[in-house]
């Protein structure tokens, strides 16, 4: 009878150790999943930020092209006015 009681305790101890091991593995897995989720959120925010930056750069480029057209038009107008001024001075 003493042997069977010791055998049950040893089996119980092994099952207890296995349960503790399973619990710690579950805990580690939960930590990893949480960490991975946090990383995915950070990555998503960074991608969205980059997308917004690209959008702002595109807008700035379009504005710059519009300004360049306005500057070229002004330059052309100034050249024409200089020619008219020269003609008026001859008269």
From TrEMBL:
The gene is Borcs7. It comes from the Eukaryota. This is BLOC-1-related complex subunit 7. InterPro entries: BORCS7. PANTHER family: BLOC-1-RELATED COMPLEX SUBUNIT 7 (PTHR31397:SF1), BLOC-1-RELATED COMPLEX SUBUNIT 7 BORSC7 (PTHR31397). Belongs to the BORCS7 family. Keywords: Lysosome, Membrane. One of its GO terms (cellular component) is BORC complex. It is found in: Lysosome membrane.
């Amino acid at each position: 009878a003493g042997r069977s009681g010791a055998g049950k305790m040893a089996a119980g101890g092994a099952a207890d150790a296995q349960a503790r091991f399973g619990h710690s593995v579950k805990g580690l897995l939960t930590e990893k999943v949480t960490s991975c989720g946090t990383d995915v959120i950070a990555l998503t925010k960074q991608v969205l930020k980059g997308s917004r930056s690209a959008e702002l750069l595109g807008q700035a480029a379009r504005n710059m092209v519009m300004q360049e057209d306005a500057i070229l038009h002004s330059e052309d107008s100034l050249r024409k006015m200089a020619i008219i001024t020269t003609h008026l001075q001859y008269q």
